[in-house]
Amino acid sequence: MNKKIIAFCTIITLGSSTVLLQVEAEENNNDNSHQVVDEQRTRLQLELLKGKLELNQVKDEIAQINEQLARVEQAIKDNEAIILETEEKISASQIEIQELESEIEILNDKVKKRNEILKKRALTFQESGGKVNYLDVLLGASSFKDFVDRVGAVASFVEADQNLVKQHESEKQEVKEKQVYVQDKLSELQNMKVELEGMQTQILEQKQQNEQLRSELERKEQDKLAEQAGLMQQDSTLTTLGDKSVIVPIEFNHDSSLTSNVTVQNLITEGFKYIGNSVYVFGGGRNEYDIANGRFDCSAFVSWAFAQVEIKIGASTEVLKNTGTPVSINEMLPGDLVFFDTYKKDGHVGIYLGAGMFLGSQSSTGVAIADMTNGYWLEKFNGRVNRIISE
To answer: Residue 90 in contact with residue 165, Cβ under 8 Å?
Structure first.
């Protein structure tokens, strides 16, 4: 019976650097069994990576819903305050209407009294035909002094009558304007209250919808966690294949690779040269001095590595994110570009190595291999994967 030796913790020594990769070996040339386990674990690793990314997205959505619910709660409180304020204004307007109604009643009484005064004056000077003939009044004077007195009296009566008529019309107009103003103000406030109450109903419905969505996302989160636990259990089972398997470290040189694609092998081999002897420099890697001294930012390192296998691509993440063919996480292969949202969307890029690992120029380490299945890089991985080298 053949005894399998599966090495998941492989040491690759490149000069002074030591990095971790997953590889597998088998005694007695049992390559087929080895390949099956290898493929199963690779698929599981990709499923785990995909699941963690989806889990993080669900958590982000829950956080966004919670923020939205907080905004809705505040909107409800603000709207309730405005409704209360409007109700107070309506009450004040109703009081003002009552006061104006009293004032209008007083004005109407004044108008009525003036009508009586005018009527009496008209009767006093009324002549035949129902008209006041001031000429007859003047001609009826018994003496010149009486005539002068009558002229003065007629002038006073005429002026007084005109003033009374003007004041009468002015106060009637004032009453009318106040009535219109008060009714318009009350109508406006009542309409505002109706609108606010309708708005409040909509906000409460929005709150209910958001709470339902949050519940659905929380259930989805639990499903994803259960799914992740199952995948991790499967991976653990494959890692320990019973009594017939042992886990041992295997030392590889820089010519070893996780892929049979020669171009990808050469790409990764070239990239490994700068592990342990490089530094991250923003904007670096775009001239001979930087390249000779291992001074790279993430996109320039990727561009340089592909140039070593005679593939010319851009040297900025903005260009690289639109370069090649987009593929899903399930289809990721060594040599693909993987993108991360760091200081901006698609702010970081690296070369996928397989088994959830990628090679890139990181600000904290320079060129190095990083694990994108947990921690910082999992959190920042945005799911964008571009294929430059065809299978």
So the answer is: no
